[in-house]
Amino acid sequence: MKFQSLLSIAAVLASASAKKIFIDNDGLAPLQLLFPIAAGHEVLGLSTSFGSASLVDGAGQAYDILNTYNLSSCVPHYIGAQQPLLRTYETFHAWEDLFGALVWQGAYDPHYKDSYSWENITYNDTLAGAIALIDAVKSNKDTDPVIVYAAGMMTTVAQALSIYPDLAKDAQGLYIMGGYFDNQYAQTIGDSITIDINTDINLIQDPEAAQIVLTADWDEIVIGGNVTNYLVPSQKLYDILEEKAGGLDVIRSNPYFAQVSKLLATGNYSQNNDQETLPFWDEVVSAYMSWPELILETTNASVAVDTSFYSPFYGSLRMWNPEWAPKSGYKIANATIIDKIDDEKFYGLLIDTFFKNWTQYCEVDGAVPLIL
């Protein structure tokens, strides 16, 4: 199967209606930000939080992406939650001792070391991420309600809800990256990277925040879940990106391709390490949030997050058929689970977006031709 051509994607691009979006993440992926603006949407703010990366590393990754594409002047960058609501380093590892260790422990890994320092990062320090989110939702609730996209722990959104409980009903909806299900078998028989990919670290690191956020009064909750594991890098994709740029050397030497270079790493898929070949998790959710036409199959489900510390499923998404969901004793929410998207169009959009010049976006409200 060959990736969808850029011309055939044009219809998808044209049909998407403009949205306002606020993103919170613990390690921004470039396309998570570029996809919405490529679809003609407005990213009102970006907050970076503790989670899979330390707070400074999450902020540093976002800072690099904003600088690469010269987006800092029109996409405000805030600092979100600095720690989970209840979990600590000690309780995280105590739970692992009881119920099994996680392959990926994020910033709670005993060997984790920061890659960035605050001296080299700038961000908007006038507001905390939760307050910036509240302000964005309040300012647009009557005209163009905001979509909240939580792609890491949901602590920042939970903080915002605790300050402003009407946040959920005043927003358009919530999109999350996370919520894997039926993955016990893969976690049992897989190698370390398979176990890692099938472990829901975004919910596990702060289960209480995830439950608070998912069961708030949103008009719409959309969960990526398993579908985000199926779209992955490949040698075929690498080859297309290299050929389109004019070679790997061009990508490595051109600062504009810094994020593409990180994706390609060695340029040889089989030689990359596990962390360089992870699925396009955040990017997949960002893509179908930006272009709903990508969605091919969905399931309606009642959901909640297990918040019992003495449970092997602490921090896991629990799901029910709405007809048979608990009626009392456990707060649940109705959500749309995305089961399948148009893979071919996704990869086409990925290539197309990386090869547009976004460095003048804040001035012209769009991309300009990329001259190599």
From TrEMBL:
> Do the record's keywords include Signal?
yes
In this chain the Inosine/uridine-preferring nucleoside hydrolase domain maps to 24-347
Q: Which InterPro entries match?
A: Inosine/uridine_hydrolase_dom (IPR001910), IUNH (IPR023186), Ribo_hydro-like (IPR036452)
Q: Which GO terms describe its cellular component?
A: cytosol
Q: Name one GO molecular function term.
A: purine nucleosidase activity
The GO annotation for biological process reads: purine nucleoside catabolic process
Q: Which UniProt keywords apply?
A: Glycosidase, Hydrolase, Signal
Tell me the SUPFAM superfamilies matching this sequence: Nucleoside hydrolase (SSF53590)
* Signal peptide limits: 1-18
User: Does the keyword field hold Signal?
Assistant: yes
Instruction: Indicate the family of this protein.
Output: Belongs to the IUNH family.
This one is known as Inosine/uridine-preferring nucleoside hydrolase domain-containing protein
Organism field: Wickerhamomyces anomalus (strain ATCC 58044 / CBS 1984 / NCYC 433 / NRRL Y-366-8) (Yeast)
